[in-house]
Design brief:
The chain is built from 4 helices and 4 strands, in the order βββααβαα. By secondary structure, the chain is an alpha+beta fold.
Length: about 130
């Protein structure tokens, strides 16, 4: 369990769900997650959308074809193209505190591998099974 600051004292919703989104592009090995903080019990809205790349910056520098993008890919940053709530910067600080817990990072890696096992698997054969007349 990771400790976070008292959210109410920061003027933030005290109960939030975290949703994780992973790349489903076959053959892509970006090693990142998009995490969204969503306040519980409210109309579906996003409090913050955060990209997190758990590898060292050198990995992303080699991986990215964009000479500047790799700087954003390593570590945690607000996703500039996704919905952000008015306190997104506070949620980013909280997220950076959460990922100090290496078990959280290990869970992101594990979930990433599970998604990649499915999306990188060869497609199932189509047509009737061989043992069918």
């Amino acid at each position: 369990m990771c400790e976070t600051p008292d959210l109410a004292s920061l003027g933030l919703p005290t109960k939030n769900f975290l949703r994780e989104f992973y790349c489903t592009d076959s053959g892509c090995d970006c090693r990142r997650v998009l995490v969204q903080f969503r306040p519980a019990g409210q109309v579906p809205q996003v409090a913050a959308s955060i990209n997190y790349g758990w590898e060292k910056a050198g990995f992303y520098k080699k991986w990215s074809s964009d000479p500047d993008l790799w700087r954003e890919m390593a570590g945690a940053t607000l996703e500039r193209w996704a919905e952000q709530g008015p306190h997104a910067d506070k949620f980013l600080l909280i997220f950076k505190q959460i990922i100090e817990d290496r078990t959280v990072v290990a869970a992101f890696r594990r979930h990433y591998r599970l998604v990649k096992e499915i999306t990188d698997a060869p497609p199932a054969p189509r047509g009737k099974p061989k043992d069918m007349p």
